[in-house]
Task: structure prediction
Amino acid sequence: MAARPRGPNILITGTPGTGKSTLASELAQRTALNYVGVGNLAKEQELFEGWDETYQCPILDEDRVIDELEDTMSEGGNIVDYHSCDFFPERWFDIVFVLRTDNKTLYERLEKRGYSSKKLEDNVQCEIFQTILDEAREAYKSEIVHELQSNTPEEMEDNLDKMALWIEDWRASH
Ligand code: DAT
Result:
């Protein structure tokens, strides 16, 4: 396994609205790891390669995202948040968490965000078909991919506790 002077690299993925950024930023605060929101990074650095007419949003330039993050990731100690996961180099991550949310709860969260009806329905379908979970299982070793329910504040707290414990264990054994 690659040396990570600053700690483990953790990927938090899942359908939009499942709670990735809330969980990842809180976990980063609690554990003093570095939060990397790929969506925000792409906006700040304009890492896009065109415009998606269907969803009316910019298309991520995945190669430039990888180039931009390579040095940071090789040092370790990062919590990466993105709604897709198979374009990152597999070697970057020590553990992958896939957040899952019930359809009705997810629908309500995305409605509050003001998503168009197509974007809303496509995202809820993506969750129903467990698209991101399958993507993660194909892209990473199955033993490092963990599915976590993210419907309630209690589940969020429970997930934070589990992840913080895993990080402590990782630090103790490296
Ligand atoms: P994402 O980053 O996956 O798009 P988010 O962190 O922005 O999702 O969360 C979407 C909304 O849902 C936000 O208002 C916070 C809320 N939320 C997230 N996880 C939750 C949970 N486990 N229980 C209750 N609300 C949650």
Observations:
- The first helix runs from residue 20 to 31.
- The pocket of 2'-deoxyadenosine-5'-diphosphate is lined by residues 14, 16-22, 109, 150-153, 155-156 (CB under 6 Å).
